[in-house]
Every structure is written in structure tokens, then in C-alpha cells.
Amino acid sequence: MKRFKLSLIAVIGIAFFTQASEPTLIGRRGCGYATENTAEAYLEGARRGYKMMEAHVRATADSVFVTSHDGKTDRLGGKMKIANSTIAELRTERYTQTRDSATYEGSGICTVGEFLDICKENGVAPLLHLKTFSKDTKDSGHLTPLAKLIAEKGATGDCTILTSEPDYIDYLMANHPEIRLQFQADTKWQERFEWSCSRKLDVQIRADLVDADCVRRYHDAGVKVNVWTVNTPEEYVRLKDCGVDYIVTDYIVP
Length: 254
Known about the structure:
Layout: E1 4-5, H1 6-15, E2 24-27, H2 39-47, E3 52-59, E4 65-67, H3 87-90, E5 95-99, E6 102-107, H4 112-122, E7 125-130, H5 143-152, E8 160-163, H6 166-175, E9 180-184, H7 193-198, E10 202-206, H8 212-220, E11 225-228, H9 233-242, E12 246-249, E13 252-253
Parallel strand pairs: 1-13, 2-12, 3-7, 7-8, 8-9, 9-10, 10-11, 11-12
Antiparallel strand pairs: 3-4, 5-6
């Protein structure tokens, strides 16, 4: 099992003469020690000390927001398509996932409301990673109900919405400016650099695309950098030295 604590990584950092401050660790899909995007993963991530956790967001046929990376549940042993299934139907499934030689069984679907409750109860900041709700990215029908749910759960001040869709960003900035946003830039980070910086949008970029110059450019513009996914001490130290602000991880724990 891949388990790396920052106290151990700090020793590696000293060996490389690092002086950078520690980035905030974000538990990816909760954490790597349970079935991804389930209540069990979020509870375990909170128990292991993450102060921020990621959840992927999709909507069911009856407009309930649930946490799932994929549009179908088959990768975890289910048989349903989320957009075509009701929450009651999805509740009948149990999911199984093998991660780094450990198998986790018995978890069910988790709603975004339940995820926000877990975060609130454990002092964790939620990162809601939006999957595309419709082929038409200008269809903003789900965004206001999601913003209302966040407000109802008392999470507006703590929550960040992450999306790769510029149309979602523009809608949320215009209609829900109270919600903190991140733009998933990845391979388009240079193409979208001026666009994101002019909006003061923090960005997420895949780890292998990030170097010190990339981070410096964003920091000079007053923008923070979140990187994904980092699971080795060496890569953690490299990106820490680059000055990144957030690191998404399955296994590195605070």
C-alpha cells in the first residue's frame, strides 16, 4: 500500500535542499483508502487528516447531485447510467474497487449533499469537480440548483467548484459570484492563461505539465496553482519546489 506522510517526505525534501512552503493536500475522490467518491472514502480521508477533498459531481435522472467520476457505474461493479437512473435506483447498487492491491467492497452511491455534510462535520473544505451535465455546455440548468444546495448546506464560504468548461465558469461568475472557482486548464493552460488570469481564476493543471516557470507566471498574476495527481515523494518534492499551492493525491497524507 502506498502510504507517504509529509513527515517522511520532509526528510527527502531536506536532502534536495528544498525551502518552499507546504502545499495544501487534496484527497482525490476522497482518498485512496476506500472506494472512490463514496461516503467511506470521504470519511476515511477526513480521518487521515485532509483539510480539502475532491468529489466529482453528476446529476441523476431525478436531478439529485451525486458524486461519481464516470457517467456509468460499471467500473465499480454497477450496471447503471447515472443520468438515466433515479437516486432510488442507484441506491440499490453496491460498489467494489481494488486500489493498489487492496479491495474495498459494499459502498453505495453518495450524494453531494451527504459529501458536504461530511466535510462540514469534519472541518474539510469541499472541492466539487463538475463533470459535463449536457453536451451543450451553455446549458446551465444544473448550476443554480447546485449553488443553492451548497448554500443550504452552509458550505458557500468553504466550497470551491472546479470545472474545465469556460461556459460554466462564465455563468457561475455572473450569477453566483459568492462561490470560489477553479479552472481545470491542463494542456490548454498557455492558451487560456490570459483568460483565466483576467478573471483571477485559480487553475488546476496536470502535474507533468507544471514547472517552476508555469507557477511563477500564475503567481505573478495573483493566481494559485493546483496540480493533479501526485502519489510519489519525489514528485511531491519537485512540485513543492515549484511553489504550487495545492496537490491532489490518493495516498500522500498530512
